[in-house]
Amino acid sequence: MDKLQDAVDILKAYNQEHIIKLLQNLDEEHKENLINDIYNIDFHQIMELYENTKKPIDIKESKIENIDYLDKAKLSKKDLEKYNELGENIIRSGQYAVVTMAGGQGTRLGHNGPKGTFKLDVYGKGKYLFEILADNLKEANDKYGVVIPWYIMTSHENNKQTVEFLKKHNYFGYDEDSIFIFEQSDLPLVDTEGKLLISKDFRIKKASDGNGGTYSSLRASGALADMKERDIKWVFIGGVDNVLLKMADVTLLGVAIDKGVQIASKSVVKSNPHEKVGVFCKMNGHPKVIEYAELPEKMAEERDENGELKYGESHIMCNLYTIEAIEKCSREPLIYHSAFKKNSYIDENGKEVIPDAPNSYKFESFIFDAFEFFDDMAILRGKREDDFAPVKNKEGVDSPKTAKELYEKYWKRQAKKVREEV
Asked: Do residues 92 and 9 both lie within one domain?
């Protein structure tokens, strides 16, 4: 009873009376679970995030400047060989690890399950997204004579399905001892009045706290400690849905080592000034990715003396870090962004409500917001047709159809290149 009263007092203090009414009508098991949830929520943080949804985003143009990059296609043969050798040495020495962010569901694709379990219709028989990544890593392992440790971040929502799927498919031939699966952290959802949503199992409804949560989740799960035990020096972090992602890009690694920086990223040039992608820049003298919605139109269209967009380097979730940088990012708090989403919930009478329009805020941090913790970073411009074929939407741009086409064309070019070299 004391615990229940304490929970009620907390809820009253933060204007969550709807949950108090619901608690009164729950059986003992559901009541205990919900009370435990209440005890484990930082209500002050959530209410602060909710209040921030009412404040406008303020970007001061004078604080933004463009950032330097290297174009891989324009590197001299000598420089390319130098960078590749530096990168190869790290991978061959077993000091390189890869993290795949796979916490999302395939909802936008019309796929019922974790996004990594989506099957892309390539070469007739198709390939799962996890399978494509596994093949990518196995190719690097064969080339450099190692087994790269593979860390896979799931979410509370899809962890069980992901683990079962990978076991069922025998990890697509990847060494199970070199795979470390861990869960991403999450945050409660709140409605437009700051009320926490309740899920169908009568728990506080939560959602993953954005890809920026990768850093702290690596530390909290023990994955970071595992990396240190393996003497890892460099860590690549990428998404599960880019079928052309190069997870062991020795050129990118070599550029970072040569420049003496702790973080690096691969970019592709924007297809047009108003493409809906985040772009690299410098703000207050530090590296930053600014979201397309936050970049003033005048700056989005600005060009340099060569006629190229000054803010044209797109962030494609292809990021590289020293282990020290991961450690730093895991301990520094990131800012949270809010997204207005449609979420079903259980009302105070225990009835499910399915809204027909966005009704609640999801809070998420972005992985690139950690770039600001550093003085500089290396950026290597790749090519869209070689490096970026995301599977995000059911139809149209960045859909299975466009990804299939890019994937098959890329490997056709690679096969032709091999024949010509022979």
From this structure: no
Task: Identify the domain containing residue 26 by its residue range.
Answer: 1-40
Q: Among the residues of 14-173, which ranges form H helices?
A: 17-24, 28-39, 43-52, 77-92, 129-144, 159-168
Q: Do both 192 and 243 map to the same domain?
A: yes
CATH code for position 226? 3.90.550.10
- Split into its structural domains, the chain has a count of 2
Chain segment 306-358, per-residue pLDDT in tens = 888 999 999 999 999 999 999 999 999 999 989 999 999 999 999 999 999 99
384 residue type, one letter: R
Residue 115, domain member (yes or no)? yes
At 238-295, the pLDDT tens digits run 999 999 999 999 999 999 999 999 999 999 999 899 888 899 999 889 999 998 877 8
* Same domain (yes/no): 260, 363: yes
DSSP annotation of 173 reads: G
The pLDDT value given to residue 389: 96
Alpha helices in 186-284 (DSSP H): 214-221, 223-229, 250-259
Residue 220's alpha-carbon distances to 1, 24, 411, in angstroms, are 32, 35, 38
| Whether residue 32 is found in the same domain as residue 84 | no
* Residue 137 shares a structural domain with residue 76: yes
Say yes or no to pLDDT of 192 above 80. Answer: yes
**pLDDT at residue 226 in the model:** 98
For residue 295, being part of any structural domain is answered with no
CB–CB of 35/22 below 8 Å? no
Cα separation, 407 vs 395, in Å, equals 16
Q: Does 320 share its domain with 235? A: yes
Tell me whether residue 410 is in a domain. Answer: no
The answer to whether residues 30 and 77 belong to one domain is no
User: Cα separation of 223 and 218, whole Å?
Assistant: 5
- The Cα-based distances of 43 to 7, 49, 116, 203, 347 in angstroms read 12, 10, 33, 15, 20
* Digit-coded pLDDT (tens) for 125-178: 999 999 999 999 999 999 999 999 999 999 998 999 999 999 999 999 999 999
